[in-house]
Structure prediction request, 183 residues.
Amino acid sequence: MQSRLIAAAALAAAFAAMAAAHAATNVYRWVDKAGKVHFSDTPPAPEDAQDVSQRRVGGGFEQQPNLPYATRMAMKANPVTLYTARGCADACEKARELLSNRGIPFGERNPAASAEDLEAFKKLSGGSAEVPLLVVGEAKLQGYDEASWNGALDNAGYPRTRLPGQPPTTGTAQPVPPADTSR
Prediction:
């Protein structure tokens, strides 16, 4: 029983170390001649091992350890992009503050900054020049309205508040690609 607990602890430690490295890697599991189970990122010597198995773990999307699980899952399904402009001081600041207070990573775009951002903004806004424009997955909300923005973020699965110890978010901290506007 104790050897199984030690093996489980070793496995958990191996997976934690790999997750911290943010890279895909191989994990080898084998049983030695004495019946003891080993886990390692290097293959065992053929004469020392029986019942060898290899698994590829890690990789995929970039881990963000400071974000709650619900936030990471919502980000994956419904990324948030905020379109702002220079003349939008008060409403855009309130928009950033709302997202930051909820701990939501977002990409911030300025239609005046690039032709690509301008084209995406025009398609998303239907030709209107009103900012801020919030894009949450497929949902588009033009003009700042706290109640409707919170509703869209709630529907997308984002938590209501930032967790203690979770750093505030900014538009530059987590860039999000522009929404697909080809539909």
